[in-house]
Design brief:
Blueprint (H helix, E strand, L loop, with lengths): L2 H21 L7 H7 L8 H33 L15 H36 L9
Helix pairs in contact: 1-3, 1-4, 2-3, 2-4, 3-4
Length: 138
């Protein structure tokens, strides 16, 4: 397997995980907006806040992975199409390389998403306690 092919496959694999996170997330929801959206007319809705927070976390992680995917694709375009990749022999079989990139990328992205969810949800609940619903979203 050449360097170019290895980087192309790695970039496509990271891009795939990125697409998954983008499909299930919403990056532009800040803690303030989530609080406003989850407090429609009567009172704060914890299930809505959790859902919006999860969407935000997944979208942010998807965006980071998309940047990594593009960087890998640029590296692939610049890599030699004849130089063998410096990989273990077992990773010269493309499905194994794709799995070797997908699995750790998915695990790291999932952990980062969970961490971001936890910290954002704490901010939302903190703002709820402090009565931070009055700002206009416009």
């Amino acid at each position: 397997m050449t360097e170019q092919l290895a980087l192309t496959l790695a970039g496509a694999s990271v891009g795939f995980v990125s697409a998954v996170f983008f499909c299930i997330g919403n990056a532009f929801n800040t803690a303030e907006k989530i609080l406003l959206q989850s407090t429609p007319y009567w009172d704060f809705s914890a299930p809505v806040a959790r859902a919006l927070t999860a969407q935000r976390a997944q979208y942010v992680v998807g965006a980071l992975l998309l940047v990594v995917s593009f960087l890998l694709q640029v590296a692939a375009a610049l890599a030699s199409s004849t130089t063998p990749a410096a990989l273990p022999q077992s990773l010269h079989i493309w499905p194994y390389l794709v799995l070797a990139v997908l699995l750790p990328t998915g695990l790291i992205a999932g952990g980062l998403s969970a961490l971001l969810y936890k910290t954002t949800m704490q901010k939302v609940l903190s703002k709820k306690k402090s009565g931070g619903k009055k700002k206009n979203l416009s």
